[in-house]
Amino acid sequence: MTTETSTSPSPSNRAGWRSDLFNYTRLSSTQLSHYHEQGYLVIKSLLSAEGRRTMVDECMRAWVSEKGPYDPNANWLTNALLANIHHQSQAVRDYYFNGPLVDIAEQIIGPNLKGVTSQLTFKMRGHTKGFAWHQDNGYGELEPYNAVTCLTALEDNDEQTGCLWVLPESHKLGQIRPGLTATQKLAGHEVVIHPDESKARPLPLQAGDCLIFSCWMLHKSEGNFSHDKDRRVLFLRYADADAVEVYNGRQARLGRLVRGHSAYPEVATFEKDL
Ligand SMILES: O=C(O)CCC(=O)C(=O)O
């Protein structure tokens, strides 16, 4: 399911950043039902053309300075991920902390919210390794189980360049524990689930569109088999402000509070002045 956005800024946002970079929207009840029933939703045009340009420029500066040119011999995670991109890009920081996804995450999760992951997930041309079927909660189980992953396309993508695939309604399976040890997780082992793929569907996105899905949604992507196009996505994740890391002695997940309040003082102050 895809949806259109309006361009009116959220009344709840504070002043002081370039809101012309983003298109604000609220989910309709039909959209919310689709998200809860199917486990995912595509939202059109959350980035304006200027927002996408600014974000790509800032992200590429960070990517090139850290990664250099694509190296087929590098580890797959090195080639695919750049963590904490909001530390290096103002446009990402504004989008993550004050952009339209905050309103959307609030509608799904509730009034108390934190941002728990920001990273680039890129498959530059030549990068033909995909991501196997997994749940994002399989890489790091957060509770409560209502965290939302948001993948914003920085350019048009499709099956050739390695768009996302989802298995609609698979979030109803609940938490799947892939059995990786803490050491394997730290070493970057890949979570691999083998579901019945007969109902899987590719979700090509246009630049500026955002695919959101549940922490239990099974998703995968193939590699980028284009010779002249990159597949660049901004990956953000939001969770309840009191969400804990089940795999880490149920300690509070650190993440910037973007709405409401947290019972954990370490969350209330985390990246507050960033
Ligand atoms: O970027 C992709 O193609 C897949 C990313 C993904 O599945 C993830 O980071 O959880």
What are the main properties of this structure?
single chain; 274 residues; alpha+beta; Jelly Rolls; eight-stranded mixed beta sheet; four-stranded antiparallel beta sheet; 8 helices; 23% strand; globular; disordered N terminus; binds 2-oxoglutaric acid
SSE blueprint:
Blueprint: E1 2-3, H1 29-38, E2 40-43, H2 49-67, H3 76-80, E3 81-83, H4 90-98, H5 100-109, E4 113-123, E5 131-134, H6 136-139, E6 142-143, E7 148-153, E8 164-166, H7 182-186, E9 201-203, E10 210-214, E11 219-221, E12 231-240, E13 244-245, E14 251-252, E15 256-259, H8 265-269
Parallel strand pairs: 1-2
Antiparallel strand pairs: 2-10, 3-4, 4-12, 4-15, 5-11, 6-13, 7-10, 7-12, 8-9, 8-11, 13-14
The chain binds 2-oxoglutaric acid.
How would you describe the overall organization of this protein?
The chain has one domain (34-269): Jelly Rolls, CATH 2.60.120.620. It is built from eight helices and 15 strands. It has helices at 29-38, 49-67, 76-80, 90-98, 100-109, 136-139, 182-186, 265-269; strands spanning 2-3, 40-43, 81-83, 113-123, 131-134, 142-143, 148-153, 164-166, 201-203, 210-214, 219-221, 231-240, 244-245, 251-252, 256-259. Mean pLDDT is 91; it is low at 2-14. The protein is globular. 2-oxoglutaric acid binds at residues 121, 131, 136, 162, 164, 219, 221, 233, 235.
Question: Nutshell version of this structure?
Answer:
This protein has 274 residues and is α+β, with helices and mostly antiparallel strands. The protein is 24% helix and 23% strand.
